[in-house]
Design a protein that fits this description.
Helix content is about 55%, strand content about 0%. The protein is an all-alpha fold. The chain has two domains: about 25-140, Cytochrome Bc1 Complex, Chain D, domain 2; about 145-233, Cytochrome c-like domain (Cytochrome Bc1 Complex, Chain D, domain 2, Orthogonal Bundle). Bound molecules: heme C (2 copies). The site of one heme C has 24 residues, from helix 5, helix 6 and helix 7.
Length: about 230
């Protein structure tokens, strides 16, 4: 049989999978590092194949079809009221993915995502959350030029949004609170409405925000969405 260049690659992959299965290490970080190594750069580099090197997170993001809705760069989603994922906080992203998978967060289009991510494992979610926070979108700009004199800018302070989300919308008080700066205007508006109405009630944290939403009416939510979407992330 003619040896194809694929044979050493397959042998290496089978060997490393067997090694992984035999490995008795229980430490979580260790195990994750090994998954990264198996799927990620090291194996690709070892083949010497002419392939674009990518991280385990980047590969999972495509394999699990996340990119079809959220865009290859995580900045240009399929629809204008889908979220921008790039540079979202790791712990927040992780919690949302698990809440969407469990059906805890089922407002808006979350059920459509749930249908696709049924088989994603906890370890894979961690890799994806790291990827979203640290790699996705590279350094590409998100958001625009906020107008500090706009009605939304004033509401953002007076309606206490800054207390939880930070003055700039990207320094939340807790790591599992969202970075909202630069999210799409239509997505922001929909989330505010869903949180206010109680349609999105996936955590104790979200109930905290619901508690202040009586302070803003529909027109003010529109002004807030204009402002927050213009904040650079
Ligand atoms: C079928 C389209 C679709 C697919 C596929 C999809 N998502 Fe989503 N995702 C959405 C939508 C839409 C939302 C917002 C839900 C809503 O309407 O409130 C969302 C929300 C999220 C959020 C929370 C964002 C925030 O700001 O709260 C994260 C994180 C996320 N997706 C990650 C992923 C990852 C990772 C994958 C792949 C494993 C994935 N998604 C696959 C459509 C999708
Ligand atoms: C008491 C803290 C708190 C306050 C005050 C607050 N928020 Fe939030 N907000 C949160 C938390 C926590 C979440 C994420 C909810 C979850 O856990 O899923 C959130 C979610 C959001 C989201 C959706 C983010 C996403 O990626 O899906 C938007 C938009 C938002 N807040 C805007 C605002 C605005 C505008 C105000 C002021 C009117 C405000 N928030 C006030 C805590 C707060």
């Amino acid at each position: 049989m003619k040896r194809t260049p694929k044979t050493p690659f397959l042998a290496l992959l089978i060997l490393s999978l067997a090694w992984l299965a035999a490995c008795s290490c229980n430490d979580r970080e260790d195990r994750l590092a090994k998954i990264r190594g198996t799927h990620g750069e090291s194996v690709l580099a070892a083949t010497g194949a002419d392939v674009i090197q990518e991280s385990a997170g980047a590969r999972l993001f495509r394999e699990k079809t996340c990119n079809t809705c959220h865009g290859d760069d995580g900045i240009h989603p399929l629809l204008p009221d889908y979220p921008i994922l790039a540079r979202q906080g790791r712990d927040y992203a992780l919690r949302q993915m698990k809440d969407i998978q469990s059906g805890n967060r089922a407002s808006g289009y979350a059920p459509q995502m749930q249908a696709v991510i049924k088989d994603v494992t906890e370890d894979e979610f961690i890799i994806l959350a790291d990827f979203i926070a640290n790699e996705l979108g590279g350094g590409a700009p998100i958001g625009g030029q906020p107008d500090p004199e706009s009605p939304g800018a004033k509401l953002f302070k007076t309606k206490t949004c800054t207390a939880c989300h930070g003055k700039d919308g990207k320094t939340p008080i807790l790591p599992d609170y969202p970075r909202i700066a630069g999210l799409p205007r239509e997505y922001i508006l929909r989330q505010m409405r869903d949180i206010k109405s109680g349609a999105r009630a996936n955590s104790m944290a979200v109930l905290g925000m619901q508690g202040v939403m009586h302070l803003v009416d529909d027109e003010q939510m529109t002004q807030l969405a204009d402002y927050v979407s213009s904040l650079p992330k």
